[in-house]
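Lecture 7 notes: from sequence to structure.
We start with the chain below.
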Amino acid sequence: MLNAAILLREYEAGETNFQGENLTGINLAKADLIGINLSQADLHSAVLTLAYLNRAKLVKTNLIATKLSGANLSQADLVGAMLRDADLHGAILQGADLRSADLTLANLLDANLIDADLRHADLAGANLTGACLRGANLREENRHYVANLRGAVLRKADLRGANLTGADLARVDLRGANLSEATLRGADLSSADLSEANLSGALLTEANLTQANLRGANLSNAKLERALLIEADLASINLHRALLADAKLTKAHMARANLTQARLGRADLSRANLRDAVLREANLTDAYLARTNLTQADLRDAILTRAEMSSANLTGAVLQGATLPDGRISD
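Predicted structure tokens for the same chain:
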């Protein structure tokens, strides 16, 4: 088994291939190991705090419980690496290839994962609080290649423009996260906590948001066609100019929601609570509003052509200038 002194001496002499070596518990804190090949090596419980591992080859490397806080792993090849319980607090993983890596229960607090490839990575139970995942790729590929983020903590994480197509985000903590312009097509966000999250311009077509908490979230200009929002908490949400065509919002809590100029054609809002909601200039053509609570809602200049609202509660609702289901303009 190599010790740290021998490895560092050989590396400085130009040797970079340490593939398959047993380096369990080795202390390489702050070491300069740029471009080193440690693929399939055993680094279980090793100390690599603040180490320079830029472009390192760590394919299928055992990094279980390894200390990598502050380490620079930019553009490193970590395909299939075992990082369970690893401490990556503040680590730089920009552009790293983490496909199929096991990051379950890993600490990625404030980690830099900009443009990282996380397809099929297992992040179940990982702590990604404050992590930056701008432009990261977590998209699903043919249902067998999907990042697992079940139970992960992504509170206040930066996911701007991230590709999360089909990702499993059920019950994930995304409070205050920045998901603006992110792609979440077909993602499972059921029972996820997205309160105060920024989803402006996000693509959520066919996403499952059943019973999700979106209270106070910003979804202005978001695309939610055919999305499932059944029993979701959308109180005080900003859906200004959002596209909700064919969305299912049955029993959704939407009190005080801002739906100004939102497009809700054929949306199912049956039994939804839209008390005090603002729906000015919203398009509700062919919408289903069976027993929908629109008490004191602002529907000025809204389009309600062919909408089914015979059992809706319109007590105190403002309908000035609205196009009614029969085509008449409300005065």
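Points to note: The helical segments are 4-12. The first helix runs from residue 4 to 12.
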